[in-house]
Design a protein that fits this description.
The protein is mainly alpha-helical. It is about 80% helix and about 0% strand.
């Protein structure tokens, strides 16, 4: 093979990866667009936003409603909420597309983590959002409104409320991913279960620091985020202990780390490399 052909092979491989990445991004956007179109037809952006705003409107004084300051805000904000719901519903498909893109470069024992990671990541993220909506919002809004002076009437702006909700949903959704992150780190050998146990106290401090930064300045929401993070850290340690290999010796670890499928895949990769030379 000439030098020009040798240089062209990596370039063609890089371009093919970019094309595949583009195709998978397009598929993800199409999935979100289809779900968004269905949600716009039923139940509709207005009903979806009313459901999202229910915890706040329930805490407002009787007869008080939220306000829309911008001219197109009554149209754009419910549409943004519907798009957010469409993204959450399409999240399993999006994660599958991301996994399918990186999976060819992984060994067989790493590929087996794909489906469990996609399912657990989606479920935990949705659980974090649900916990925030059904438990945290009601407590936080009642707590905040209890401090409002009697001389004013609260009238929150719907766009400001959407920004607040998205920040809280993202914070709680990501915090509930702690067990998945710990399992992946242990499975990849980045950290051991023993180290995670040693870092427990540091994580508790970090959880309260993160909660103080991303949540409103009230004790209720900060505790509502920090305490679940600490509990999920313990669950992550237990889950990581179940998936980690038993430390029965260096030879046993080495034998378990490489399976027959991994060896076969390595041989195929070497054969392709040898043919391209």
């Amino acid at each position: 093979m000439s030098d020009n052909q040798a240089n062209a092979a990596p370039e063609e491989s890089f371009i093919s990866h970019l094309v595949e990445l583009r195709d998978r991004l397009i598929r993800s956007l199409i999935a979100i667009a289809l779900i968004l179109g269905g949600l716009c037809l039923y139940p509709g952006p207005g009903d979806i936003y009313d459901f999202l705003a229910a915890p706040l409107t329930a805490a407002l004084p009787e007869g008080t409603k939220m306000v829309a300051i911008g001219v197109i805000t009554p149209f754009m904000v419910p549409l943004k909420v519907t798009a957010m719901v469409a993204f959450v519903l399409a999240l399993p498909f999006i994660l599958y597309q991301a996994w399918s893109f990186v999976a060819p470069g992984l060994y067989a024992h790493e590929k087996r983590l794909g489906v469990p990671l996609i399912v657990s990541s989606t479920v935990l993220f949705v659980l974090g959002m649900a916990f925030c909506y059904y438990f945290v919002f009601g407590q936080v809004f009642h707590f905040i409104n209890s401090f409002a002076p009697k001389s004013i009437t609260p009238a929150p702006d719907i766009e400001a409320y959407l920004s607040f909700v998205m920040t809280m949903f993202l914070a709680f959704g990501l915090s509930f991913e702690v067990p998945v992150a710990l399992v992946v780190l242990v499975k990849l050998g980045v950290v051991s279960v023993a180290k995670l146990k040693e870092w427990r106290s540091y994580f508790v401090v970090g959880a309260f620091v993160v909660a103080a930064i991303v949540t409103p300045p009230d004790v209720v929401s900060q505790l509502a985020l920090a305490i679940p993070m600490c509990l999920l850290y313990e669950i992550g340690i237990l889950a990581a202990g179940l998936v980690s290999r038993p430390a029965s010796g260096v030879a046993d670890d080495a034998a378990q780390a490489v399976t027959d499928d991994d060896l076969q895949q390595a041989e195929e990769d070497f054969r392709k490399f040898d043919n391209n030379k």
